[in-house]
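Weekly structure sync - notes
Attendees: PM, LS, DV (DV joined late)
Agenda: review two folding runs queued last week.

Item 1: First target. Sequence and structure tokens pasted below for the record.
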Amino acid sequence: MNALFYNQLAAEHPVVRDHVRLGAEDANNEQLNPVAPGVAPCVATSFAVLDAFLPWRGWPVGAMTEIMTDCVGCGELSLLLPAMARLTQEKRPVLCIGAPHTLFAPALTQAGIDPTRITQINPASSAKQSKENLWSAEQALKTGLPGMVVLWSPTNLNCAPETLRRLHLSTLGRETMLIHFRGKSSMSQTSPAWLRFGFAADDTHIRLQVLKCRGRLLTRPLITLDRASVQARLYGQLRATQKLDAATTLGLTPVSSPALSTSAALPLNTYTRSDTSTSRATAGMH
């Protein structure tokens, strides 16, 4: 939505200001949601629409955040990459526990993340290791050393309330945040987490259903992000590869050619070229 049009509309209809959170993905707009005094510290998400909605202006530090999805590799980790980059640039370690795949270091570097600050425990772990992963996360949080702990639990795992409570208590009063990826079946369960999202994505959008946000009324519990902006590097690489494929198949054709334009506009789920570098980047920046 055009920023000028939005401002005019919000001025005439104040209710719009509380219900609409659409805009450019530029993190410089700080007028949508002023920070309340005394709120917990945060690490900015770098997505203006999301930062403007959250009362902390970013991922809450010293608290647990839950992101619930059954889909792996659909952009969920990309939400965390800017925060991970900022923390590693500040020489804060990031601990990834139970990731569904081994993170690809060159893709992390491309996102501005220092891979030497990333530690992985049980990547591609099985359900049998879920208890071990929960224990590892709790112990790491108690040290207060990591800037961020990212924990993946199996989508069918039903975490006991006392386990979630211990995880959350382990973050309180510490300069560490916990991001806990869980399955969609967990959306109906109670949790002490300060922030809870249901995550869904298609080729064009990422949708976050806000289930819980401490200190904020859920007047607009659905946040929509442009997936091409969230995964700008990956989408740019895929578009360039599509154009290269079209040029290889059809010959060198002007950019304005209908044949090339049609190929470049293909949705991502039609992309089938087997390219090692592209698949590796996708695995590291999903």
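Item 2: Second target, run right after the first with the same settings.
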Amino acid sequence: MRKRNLTLSFVLLFTLSLCIMLSPFSGECSETWNIVSSDYRNAAESQKKQADITSKAEIANKAEMVEIEYKGKVISVDIADIILMADGKGGQTIGLGDPEKYISQHGNVGVAPYGEGQLYSANSSLSNSNNTSGSQNSRSNIQEITEREYEEEQLAHQWANIVEDLSLRDIDEKTLELVRKFGEAKGAVPPMAGSSGSVVITYSSYTPRIVCRPMYVTDIMLQPGELVTGVHPGDPVRWTFTPSRSGSGVTEQTHVLIKPLIADISTNLIINTDRRTYQLDLMSSPTDFIPSVSFSYPADSLKEWDMFLAERKKERQNTTELSSGYTVNPEDLYLDYEVRGRDSLRWKPIRVWDDGVKTYIHFRKGSTKKSVEAPVLIIFEHKKEVLVNYRVANDMYIVDRVFDKGALIVGTGAVQDRVVITRLGTKGMGN
């Protein structure tokens, strides 16, 4: 900056000399002088402002940040975070109000706890109590507390962090609200009376609360055949949980026997099995208790129906297929059948025959599956229409008897389509 001022001064003197030498042009020199002097003043004011800003920043930095030495390592800390404490020997040690702010500087060294701090380094403006008044003013900004106060302040910092970790977010509040609504059991199926005085609770309808009593046992009965894989109580000290079994084989049933040791306590219990997970709330009452609890399983009932229907469907498919060992003597085939009906009917048979025991009605490929409804077969006996048993195998009806006249019908009443099948009196291999 000093060099720049000298340069400006030299330019000013050179311009003044030039104006004196060219005195006939004094008016122009005067104008030139004004321009140069104005530029000089503006540059000087700008340099002064910049210097003031730099000086203020340096003063602010020096006032806020100091260096301290710990185990041979110097770190920069905010003066507001420094705490001075008596070391019991007439000297002082240091502590920091918020040590975690300086982890990036001290790394694994750690900030000195009470009683292990080091004095300020010699480079610090605070290292000597006999420093200038500026140092004394900075030193006056440092807290000076006792050991007990320091420990209490550190505990307060720790508790503040714990409280922050325990505070709930909006999404956590919504989650808890869903849990509360489920626990209120609105719209849940009410318990029912079971056998042997047990209470039957619908599984997964809500979280049941089981009332127990000290010196009494409450029996939790699980589904027959269900195997327990884990029992997890919330309070295993003041509650006892004992396993038991009843029955044998497929009827064997697992029991969880619950007994509280004292009254007016509560906890929860989770029972894991090979089929499901039970979640129970437990409370201990000095006067009331539920002797036994069992469960109903609506979802299992629906599954049993699904399995039953699937097995029935499989049985029907198996009975509709011809046995692979089926054989027939060609001489026993009777092919002379008449089929009368509209040719436009998709399900009109293309041929009918029998082997003396069963009658076979053969349709076009896929015709019965593409129809809105498959035709029903009836036979005529003593001038009456009689339903007859038959089964479906691919594109064929197999009737377990031989009949003289029958009909395939789709529809009811006056709105129906009918194909009449008649067995003629000629027996042989021809059509």
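Discussion on item 2: Residues 108-135, 427-431 have pLDDT under 50 and may be disordered.
Action: LS to circulate a short write-up before next sync.
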